[in-house]
Design brief:
By secondary structure, the protein is mainly β. The chain has 2 domains: 121 residues, Immunoglobulin-like (Sandwich), CATH 2.60.40; 108 residues, Immunoglobulins (Immunoglobulin-like), CATH 2.60.40.10. It is 12% helix and 42% strand. The strands form 2 sheets. Strands 1, 2, 3, 4, 5, 6, 7, 8, 11, 12, 14 and 15 form a 12-stranded mixed sheet that branches. It has a 3-stranded antiparallel sheet with strand order 9-10-13, with no helix packed on it. The longest helix is centred in the N-terminal third of the chain and has 18 residues. The protein is globular, with a radius of gyration of 22 Å.
């Protein structure tokens, strides 16, 4: 509580300094214009064919614009398997979604994404990354500052001698927001690893939908920064500027164009756990 009052006092001082100025200062907030947003997560769930896949395209709106991103229609979206040139055409659904029912996922194979839109070409390259099965789910209680908090750990074996990276996705019945956790086996290679999830609202009978993805090192670096920035509490008026988050989609004819989003391919294992 003492630190809270200190932070409030600091903010009041800063406001006072600015309000004491007699000159009016007009500040132009830069607006770089709309950007192409690529949501291209090719997920192959264990035990399924993985043939049906969706890629979403949209145009971002201005920072202070209350309108949502605008769906992109009329684009050409093709994914190609590099080693044999097999192409998978994603059909325009006229709502920003592009869907194929013929995709053929293959572990450790490299794929390229090509988007043609507004006379521009956008490309990205990624490898389909495997994941091992879930061994067990353990429920514990962690003591917090106010109340005890239910925590679950999802255990799985990490293949030895290979750099592995994982993404855990948790969607509970008591919270509409997804929780993401990224994990590297840098210090746990070849051991049984786990990804954990806790939420102060979890109660007996609540369900948690769990997904564990195998991801590339490049995507791990990307999503780890995204998670860190999304969990930041703001840090006060003089916080450090966040690291610019850059995906793997580029315009090869215009290196300065910023494209938002990421093209990734993952094998995924899913289950649902009920809180005891």
């Amino acid at each position: 509580m003492k630190n809270r009052y200190k932070n409030i006092a600091l903010v009041l001082i800063v406001i006072g300094l600015f309000s004491s100025c007699t000159d009016t200062v007009d500040v132009d907030v830069p607006n770089g214009g709309s950007r192409l947003v690529v949501e291209a997560s090719i997920n192959w769930e264990k035990g399924t064919s993985g043939q049906t896949q969706t890629i979403k395209l949209s145009q971002s709106t201005a920072f202070f614009d209350s309108n949502p991103d605008v769906p992109v229609t009329g684009a050409s979206v093709i994914v190609t398997k590099v080693d044999d040139g097999m192409q998978f055409v994603f059909e325009d659904q006229n709502n920003g979604d592009y869907i194929t029912n013929t995709f053929q996922p293959e572990i450790d194979k490299t794929y390229t994404l090509e988007i043609l839109y507004n006379n521009e070409t956008y490309v990205a390259t990624e490898t389909l990354t495997p994941v091992t099965d879930i061994n067990d789910i353990e429920q514990t209680v962690e003591g917090g500052f106010d109340d005890d908090e239910i925590q679950i750990k999802v255990f799985f074996d990490d293949p030895i001698g290979i750099d592995n990276f994982y993404l855990g996705e948790f969607n509970s019945s008591v919270n509409t927001l997804l929780t993401l956790e990224a994990l590297s086996d840098q210090f746990t290679d070849g051991n049984e690893n786990f990804i954990e999830f806790d939420n102060e609202d979890l109660v007996e009978g609540a369900t948690v939908d769990i997904s564990v993805y195998g991801i590339s090192e490049q995507y791990y670096n990307y999503i780890d920064i995204l998670i860190e920035q999304s969990e930041s509490d703001g840090g006060g008026p003089f916080q450090t500027t966040p690291v610019q988050l850059k995906g793997n989609c580029i315009n090869p004819n215009n290196a300065d164009e910023e494209v938002l989003g990421y093209f990734r391919l993952s094998e995924v294992v899913r289950t649902t756990y009920t809180i005891q």
